[in-house]
Each structure stands twice: as structure tokens, then as C-alpha cells.
Write a structure and sequence with these properties.
- Helix content is 15%, strand content 28%.
- The chain is of the alpha+beta class.
- It has 2 domains: 53-177, no CATH class; 179-211, no CATH class.
- The strands form 4 sheets. It has a 5-stranded antiparallel sheet with strand order 6-8-7-9-10. Strands 3-4-5 form a 3-stranded antiparallel sheet, with no helix packed on it. A two-stranded antiparallel ribbon has the order 1-2.
- A hairpin with a 5-residue loop joins strand 4 (36-42) and strand 5 (48-51).
């Protein structure tokens, strides 16, 4: 899959991979909203999705080194097997990530997203509940709750396309939405609730996503 976007000056920008570090996986595109750079991934259909790098604590990244990545599931049959192995009574709650190829990876719900993703950037991440009844497989709830990647609510677009490629029924949106901000004063990751843009340290938080 060729991943190409246009930079602010109209020049072509594409993703490259640096073998020395998986976190150099993205040649950064330019986001004029906050004057920072973010990777972009283009799907075969021409949709552009933002790529999120790990922004969580270094201590967690070090602790999970060597852990296996989540299982890549390519169809409902794969998901049935995963639920049978990891759930109970036809239901399973999992950590999930969507990779740069719009692939869905599942891991135990207590797994860190960065490990589930194979230590690579993601298009989204969160928690998912899957129900299996006979031949029917359905996502009954799903969120973007990942303090490791802090994906935006708008990352649902990538999740939706991922699930539809698999043929998996889903709610049509995140059933629980999380909006994260980074405090420029103390460095804390904040979850925005009730439009309250203030860090516990007292600093004002930006209105736009800023990781």
C-alpha cells in the first residue's frame, strides 16, 4: 500500500520506515491546526487517516518490551476463535489497535496498547466488546480509551473502515468517547470531561488535541 499525502506547500509526502526504530515509522505530514507534525495513512479508497505514535510513560514501554503483539484477525472466523479462546459465554472484552494497513489486532483487555500494536504507530486504539451467537459476530461496545496512544474521537473513521472490511457488525460510532489533552506545564495526560479544559495543576489546556 502506497501511503501518500500532500504537504502544506503542495509537495508530496510519504511514509517511510527506519529499521533502527519503529517510532521512526512515519515521515511526518504537516498539521496546520496546531503547527505540529503528524503521520497520515491513505487507504486504497483514498481516505486519509491520522497515524498516532505512542505517547505514554517510558516506564510502561520498557516494562512490556518483548511481549507479543496482538493477534491480527482478518475475518469473523478469526474473531470467533479469539472469543472462544479468551472470552466466556460467547462474549469477550479486548484491547484493540488498528494498524497502518487497517488491520485489527486483539489482545487480552489487560494488555498495553503499545504491545498489542507491535510497538508501531496506530490509526486508533481502545477497548472493544465482541459478542458471538452462532454464526453472528457483533461489536456491542467500543471506545478510544488508550492512554498510551491517546487517539482522537475522529479516529473512528479508521476503526469503521477496518471493521467493515472484516464484515463485522458494529454500533456505528464509539459507544464511549474519550478526549485527551497534554498539559504543557506539568506534562500530565488529561481526560477532558464536561468541556473542562484545566489540568489539576491549574494550567489551562488547549481546545485542540495536542500530543
Amino acid at each position: 500500500m502506497l501511503t501518500v499525502i500532500r504537504g502544506p506547500d503542495g509537495g508530496a509526502v510519504k511514509m517511510v520506515e527506519n529499521s533502527e526504530s519503529p517510532w521512526q515509522h512515519v515521515l511526518l505530514g504537516y498539521d496546520q491546526c496546531d503547527r505540529r507534525c503528524h503521520g497520515r495513512v491513505a487507504s486504497e479508497e483514498g481516505c486519509i487517516f491520522k497515524s498516532y505514535q505512542y505517547v505514554g510513560p517510558a516506564s510502561i514501554l520498557e516494562r512490556v518490551q518483548g511481549q507479543p503483539s496482538g493477534r491480527l484477525v482478518k475475518g469473523c472466523a478469526d474473531i470467533r476463535v479469539w472469543v472462544l479462546e479468551n472470552g466466556s459465554n460467547g462474549s469477550a472484552t479486548a484491547t484493540f489497535t488498528v494498524d497502518s494497513s487497517l488491520g485489527l489486532r486483539l489482545a487480552d483487555r489487560h494488555s498495553e496498547h503499545v504491545a498489542c500494536a507491535g510497538f508501531r504507530p496506530v490509526l486508533s486504539a481502545g477497548e472493544i466488546v465482541i459478542e458471538v451467537q452462532g454464526s453472528d459476530v457483533e461489536v456491542t461496545s467500543i471506545s478510544n480509551q488508550s492512554t498510551g496512544f491517546c487517539p482522537e474521537p475522529s479516529s473512528w473513521a479508521a476503526v469503521s473502515e477496518c471493521l467493515e472490511r472484516i464484515g463485522l457488525e458494529h454500533p456505528g460510532e464509539f459507544t464511549a468517547v474519550f478526549d485527551f489533552r497534554l498539559c504543557g506545564e506539568c506534562g500530565a495526560r488529561n481526560l477532558i470531561k464536561d468541556e473542562w479544559f484545566e489540568c489539576p495543576c491549574g494550567a489551562e489546556l488547549p481546545k485542540h488535541w495536542n500530543f
